[in-house]
Task: structure prediction
Amino acid sequence: MSTAFALPRRHVPALTRALANTATITARNLRRLARVPTLVALATIQPILLVVLFNYAFGGAVHVPGVTHYIDFLLPGLFVLAIGFGASQTGVAVAEDLATGMIDRFRSLPIASAAVLTGRVAADAVRNLLVVGLMIAVGSAIGFRFHAGPGAALAAVGLAVAAGIAFSWLNLLLGIMVRDAETAGLAGLFPIIILFFTSSALVPVATMPGWLQAFAKANPITVITDALRALCLGGPTARPAAEAVAWLIGLLAVTVPAAIARYRHTAST
Amino acid sequence: MGHQPAIVTEGLSKRFGPVRALDGVDLEQPAGTVLGMLGPNGAGKTTAVRILATLLSPDGGRARVAGLDVVAQAAAVRRLIGLSGQYAAVDPYLTGRENLQMIGRLYGLGRRAARRRAGELLERFDLTQTAGRQARTYSGGMRRRLDVAASLVARPSVLFLDEPTTGLDPHGRIAVWELLSELTGQGTSLLLTTQYMEEAERLADAIVVIDHGRVIASGTPGELKTRIGGDRLELQTQPGGDLRPLAQALAGLGTGPPVVDARAGRVVLPVINGPALLTELAQRLAASGLQVADLALRRPSLEDVFLTLTSAPAAAAAHTPPDGTDPAAVPGSPEPAAGRTQ
Result:
């Protein structure tokens, strides 16, 4: 056969190629985010409902010392919840890709193998940016305000997106391990739901019974929520932010290499 | 590509736990030919394809694709191959065109080149009309065509198709066959796995029959058919009718003795050039005065292949775990052109 068509032969540096591959996979996943009904709902209707329902259901009963509007206290925690819910779909998607042979196809191509994962995480990050923006808009309409200035507000958005990246890697790992879409969805949701309700996201930890306080204080959702809250509401930020960043780095340090290794291994067995 | 064979394997082995998915497979496929790999479910066909397509590492033996080692030179192999696996691996939420463009971009084509190539393939695979629709709205046959198109984006010199027509209706199956024969006329080497004798016969230059992870026979379709004994003439008596006189009446007519299948109430006769025998058959039946309820001339099926090659019922051959006395080890077969029995 004719080889006139042959693929571009010029030497492309591995990193350039990996980034180009990641961009292509990201574009694929962003298209899916805009077209798969579940994903569209999770990125639009759900964040709006979370803000409105939690604010009006709990807002009348919960009075947080030093906070005038409950929505100011609530919104940072809801960022984490919405991003966590969204991330569970990442495990679902990778399990589906394994089941439908999409991963086999990708692995038979001359591409950087991690691009299939990094492209997924990058698309999630774009979605999370939109979700957080949407929640800020809805929150603002019912009284939410940033109290620590624009720099801290941007840092809060950045931290929320960074938390999303760590959650995405965790869910990629879960999805590759369980290989079944429904199981991956549950495996992604359960920890978020349990950790969310035992964290400082809805109520101050000080109002919980003593045995739960210990757990709540160590809970990563508490740590991340407290850092986000400090960035949104003002007050000392260095320590909570450092703790949150440490959690995220720790989570990434475990999940990124494990997900990549599992991806390479699982796909080939 | 030069004169490098498309595929060479030597003693290729792979275990999954206690199961020997591949148990020492030797293959040689000349460049530009079509090799049909025929076998039942679980025979090891998919494992072989996955190893050759660099998705799976073998436990033992070697495999080269277009002269490149699939383990040591996996990245280079991936630039030369196309794979269409057992399930149509296209993104249901992307349009047909987007699916092909994505694959082109991943191969390193520029945006414009990827778009042009997608357009060519859509045209050729008769998908231009539906190119703007999401693949989830496609019929099974359309999705399979899109999947095969995706495996051709980079004009692979070696193409792997794992059961490309499984799950298609007859119409879709014929459409895929036509497409593949067109393709292979252009010099692409194709390894095709199938459960259908007819499919292998129609498309392949050479066939390997694989079972329990071993090649149990190989050769051209003609050679295999000769070994299997060509067609089957089946005569059915009235329910409860006596089959023995019928079998006696048929003696010497076929390429082998008539076989009495009492449970199915029929006599099966291996024949070559069946239609020409019908006159003789009619005379014998008339002379013997025997009544026949039904008469059929059919092509050998995969079951017949196993029956003949393993001298054991196909069902048993397909379920007996491999051991030292593997029924697959049938000696005395003619050496095939494009593959080697072990």
Summary: Chain A has one domain: 24-267. The mean pLDDT of chain A is 92. The interface with chain B takes residues 1-3, 5-8, 12, 17, 20-21, 24-25, 27-28, 31-32, 35-36, 100-102, 104-111, 267-269 of chain A (CB under 8 Å).
